[in-house]
Amino acid sequence: MNQKIIAVVMTITGLFTSPLYANTIRAGDVINVSLDELIPTQTSVGYDQIMYKLGRYQFDREKMFDEVCEANGQKGVENISVNASPNNPSSFTCQLTVGKRKQDMKTVVIAPDGDYYLTDGHHTFNVFYEMPEGGADFHINVVVAKDYRDIKGMDKFWTQMKNDGNTWLFDVNSNPIRYDELPTSLGIKNFHNDLYRSLMYFTRGVSWDKPDKPVPFLEFYWSKEVRKKIDASTFDLNSKDGYAKAVKTVSEYILAVDTTDVGGSNLSAKQMGQFNAYDKKAFKKLFKGDGKIDYLLRYKATLSEKPSQ
Hints:
Order of helices and strands: HEEEHHEEEEHEHEHHHHH
Protein name: Chromosome partitioning protein ParB
Number of domains: 2
CATH class of the largest domain: Alpha Beta
Shape: globular
Oligomer: single chain
Distance between the termini: 51 Å
Strand order of the largest sheet: 1-8-6-7-2
Pfam families: ParBc_2
Helix content: 25-40%
Strand content: 5-15%
CATH architecture of the largest domain: Alpha-Beta Complex
Number of helices: 10
Largest sheet: 5 strands, mixed
CATH superfamily of the largest domain: Conserved hypothetical protein from pyrococcus furiosus pfu- 392566-001, ParB domain
Organism: Vibrio casei
Structural class: alpha/beta
């Protein structure tokens, strides 16, 4: 009898998470998806940002659970069982219920064909995809930012996506691309490595920070601006000294930018979060033991130690 009840419950649960019932979902809803259901809306990511997170999780497992909780809108982790795994929600407890803090959650839109397109969270979800206990079938909760199912045809959908600022249709060199050149799934190998995007992540807090209401893809606009004057390939991003030089050089340039159109954003440097002065304390923190660059370089070292296949 109990087995029959369990079977019925599982069937009902499966029905309400299947595409057949997707028409009940509306903008603003929190939905649970697997990472392989999400389609990217940009071609590149900063590999080093992702590797920093993987390194952080490798040496600080509590942080991994903390960020899974945060991504689910649950603020942070409260309790972790001995054999806890991030892909088993019953093995750890978050501080709040799912979706309580929607402002911390990543967003998707629904396309005319019913597919889910990721509009925020490409770095975070690529980390979840690549971490040892993650992968394509890793489940996470997201917020539906917009429903485009009333639009007829994918060409019109992508035109509207571009108008709404929900896609970044540029390649790693800032050249325009077509929407059919975008990756079709998460996984770091499906994305190009944007060195400038990584450097924008590590200079955040040193020379700039996100404004209260940031423009979508803010870091990419800044990356386009920085690329005009700085060649990131000249830095040794596998050493502490090389990274320090890169962060310092990029930060000094960001502070010197005087334009009303950062990277084609139609916004000024100040509107895009430019600081008035260099934050030396934040810079030093990056390179301390258990700082972001420290975790990144330690993780890179573990990769170089692995035998070639």
